[in-house]
Amino acid sequence: MNFDVAIVGSGLAGLSVALNLAQTRRVAIIAKRPMAEGASDWAQGGIAAVLDSGDSIENHVRDTLIAGGGLCDEASTRFIVEHGREAIEWLISQGVPFTRDDAAELGFHLTREGGHSHRRIIHAADATGHAVVATLGERVRHHPNITLLENHYAIDLITSDRLGLPGRCCHGLYALDLATNRIVTIEAPHTVLATGGAGKVYLYTTNPDTATGDGVAMAWRAGCRVSNMEFIQFHPTCLFHPYAKSFLISEAVRGEGGILKLADGTRFMPHHDERAELAPRDIVARAIDFEIKKRGVDCVYLDISHQPAAFLHEHFPTILARCLEFGIDITKEAIPVVPAAHYTCGGVVTDLSGRTDLSGLYAVGETACTGLHGANRLASNSLLECLVTGRTAAAAIEHEGFGGAIHAPLPDWDESRVSDPDEEVVVAHNWDELRRLMWNYVGIVRTDKRLARAKHRLMLLRDEIHEYYANFKVTRDLLELRNLVEVATLIVDSARSRRESRGLHYSRDWPATLPKALPTVLAPEHIRNRNV
Fold first, then answer.
1. 351-398, pLDDT tens digit by residue?
2. Which residues does 184 contact at the CB level (< 8 Å), separation at least 6?
3. Residue of 427, 438, 38, 440 lying closest to 246 (CA atoms)
4. Fewer CB within 10 Å, N- or C-terminus of the chain?
5. Topology adopted by domain 235-341
6. How far apart are CA 85 and CA 525, in angstroms?
7. Which is nearest to 368 in space by CA: 114, 194, 488, 200?
8. Residues annotated catalytic, as ranges
9. How far apart are CA 94 and CA 396, in angstroms?
10. Helix axes 424-441 and 476-497, enclosed angle (nearest 10)
11. Domain boundaries, the chain
């Protein structure tokens, strides 16, 4: 297959790149599941942007820098915030049905979330991500210049090194067609990684099954630097119920007056932070973790039942309906909640146009690290980043042209020496072991000893997985496991190198925060040796 641009991932970042290029270019979107099954579709709260005259760019920048624990890149933050309104207006022009408010300046309702000093979250009730992805997805499906390859799992990038060519360039990728179990070769002078985060590396997560860190792992193997992987955001409020898999209770519930309580009704957040329930997510998550461990309980409770039932039906219809499925009426009772892995603040090192260390390779959205999120992402800045950098990446690709393809055909995938064993049980066991050790040793609170234990076990797991990968036919489960162990190792290596507590990284051995904030940057060994 041959395209002008190959985009791996079908969330908001990938769709933004595709729709901003497809008027003039042949674009492929490679999605390992049906298009709407990514994390963007699951996003509830909304998109942060300055949309009201009572707010300002300076306010939004300041809120982001404060939440980011001093580690945000201020220039990147300012650029993304300044381009927020035009990105939102582009979404409106695409037909996204945001919740209306005729009294508001822009005509849409704005809510407020933790860490924000003003109401600036534009939303579509409590299912913003679904509304955005459904709207853009329809445009993608009907666009004559976009080829949608659903149920195709990207395996690895095809680089100059792999082809024995000079330079550091990406020429496309290999992908597993899950319908036929055949591996296809996709050639493109520009490849965009928009695969989302890596929440599935943890036992408990709010992320969908697609969040296996594929883009970060592929870029790392191809020779790209990664940054700030130790900063994993744990969402404070995931529904606690034995049958409620990965269901998030939106930040907006606390923004609209939700109160965190113990089982006896005691409110506890004011004892942890003066901002109480509206403190940034890392503070709220650590407070809940502290209360759960201190008291030996399974969960805490988020209570918004004091709001009128009509208000809850209007603002949180999805949450209300989902909780009712499990016998919880949020108009009358509190919601049992626990923290869960939610967002990967670090990722592949890029500039503001998504460029990576390899010519022809870009990363956008949660896969990338632009410097916006620092040590902790401010609520609803993630979809904003997807939109802004998706559009700037498309502009950069258009500007750089399309003469980078090699003239000889790319080699087919070689599986002539592999076998096809019945070893699914081994993959399932390794997957479970990996996620449990990350949850137990590399969670909300960390220690040097826990991180050392995690590193030792990860090395054993990685050797076993790599041996399995080298000798047997690839499957989706094996590919996901291979990527997860790679990303888990990057998280642990980053955490071990940070000798302080900052933002989402809290160490009992290093509780102080150093006076100067520095990013953690890791480079593959063969690239370090080139002094790149």
1. 999 999 999 999 999 999 999 999 999 989 999 999 999 999 999 999
2. 1, 152, 174, 175, 176, 177
3. 38
4. C
5. Flavocytochrome C3; Chain A, domain 1 (3.90.700)
6. 41
7. 194
8. 281
9. 22
10. 20
11. 5-230+345-400, 235-341, 424-517
Is there a contact between 402 and 190 (Cβ–Cβ < 8 Å)?
Answer: yes
**In CATH terms, is domain 5-230+345-400 a member of 3.20.20.70?**
no
Question: Which residues of the chain register pLDDT less than 50?
Answer: 530-532
* Distance between CA atoms of residues 22 and 140, nearest Å: 9
Q: What burial letters (b/e) apply to 126-138, b meaning 16+ CB within 10 Å?
A: bbbbbbbbbbbbe
Tell me the C-alpha distance between 371 and 228, whole Å: 9
**HEC assignment per residue over 271-321:** HCCCCHHHCCHHHHHHHHHHHHHHHCCCCEEEECCCCCHHHHHHHCHHHHH
Q: If you search the block for the tokens 């503070």, which residue do you land on? A: 283
Burial of 298-332, coded b for 16+ CB within 10 Å and e otherwise, reads ebbbbbbbebeeeebeebbeebbebbeeeebebbe
Contact assessment for residue 13 and residue 364, using Cβ atoms and an 8 Å cutoff? yes
| Contact assessment for residue 47 and residue 122, using Cβ atoms and an 8 Å cutoff | yes
Element (H, E) at 8: strand 5-8
| Straight-line distance from the first to the last Cα atom of the chain, in angstroms, rounded to the nearest whole number | 32
Coil/strand/helix, residue 174: strand
Structure tokens at 439: 């949850």
How many other CB atoms are there within 10 angstroms of residue 176's CB atom? 23
Prediction pTM value: 0.90
* 465: CB partners within 8 A, 6+ apart: 430, 478, 481, 482, 485
C-alpha–C-alpha distance, residues 387 and 176, integer Å? 28
Rg (CA), the chain: 22
Sheet with strand 110-111: strands edge to edge: 47-48, 121-122, 110-111
| Spatial CA neighbour of 433 closest among 469, 459, 452 | 459
Sheet of 232-239: strand order equals 232-239, 335-344, 300-303, 259-261
Count the helix, strand and coil residues of the chain and give each as a percent rounded to the nearest 5. 40, 20, 40
Q: The domain at 424-517 falls in which architecture?
A: Up-down Bundle (1.20)
In angstroms, rounded to a whole number, what is the distance separating the alpha carbons of residues 401 and 191? 13
- Separation between Cα atoms, residue 507 and residue 145, nearest integer Å: 49
The contacts of residue 395 (CB under 8 Å, 6+ apart) are 20, 353
Alpha carbon dihedral 327, 328, 329, 332, in 10-degree steps, equals 130
Strands (E), 151-261: 152-159, 170-177, 182-187, 190-193, 226-227, 232-239, 259-261
Residues in the chain, overall count? 532
Q: How many helices (H) and strands (E) does the chain have?
A: 17, 19
Instruction: For 185, list phi and psi in degrees, rounded to 5.
Output: -105, 125
Which residues, including other chains, have CB under 8 Å from residue 387's CB and lie 6 or more apart? Answer: 12, 13, 16, 47, 84, 87, 88, 90, 91
Q: How buried is 473 (Cβ within 10 angstroms: 0-12 exposed, 13-18 middle, 19+ buried)?
A: middle
Phi and psi angles of residue 39, each rounded to the nearest 5 degrees, phi first: -65, -35
